[in-house]
């Protein structure tokens, strides 16, 4: 994932939280908003409720990697914000990846391959 395709500014996150809609599962919350661009931008947040800084960094790395590996399957033109829930601190990569794909599929953003 390129650095240009990341949400970094607080105002961008706030806009997605306010104008976008959300969906959640046991491990993650996904906020989605159209961005008017021809590419997706993604942001990842982990609350202090999840754990100490080492745990939060690990969870954020796993979330970023699961998004990066499946980035080409996602429809373009959206801002996506993934928020980790408390259960993420004990999860492994495959659980976080399946939770990510589950939310993207439920929102109808997974491109169908013909």
Number of strands: 4
Number of helices: 3
Q: How are the strands of the biggest sheet laid out side by side?
A: 1-2-4-3
Give the overall pLDDT as a whole number.
92
CATH topology: Ribosomal Protein S5, domain 2
User: What percentage of residues falls in helices of 4 or more residues?
Assistant: 25-40%
CATH architecture: 2-Layer Sandwich
- Global morphology: globular
Kindly give the count of domains. 1
Please report the distance between the alpha carbons of the first and last residues. Answer: 25 Å
Computed Rg = 13 Å
- Biggest β-sheet description: 4 strands, mixed
Structural class: alpha+beta
Give start-end ranges of low-pLDDT stretches. Answer: none
CATH class equals Alpha Beta
Percentage of residues in DSSP E strands:
15-25%
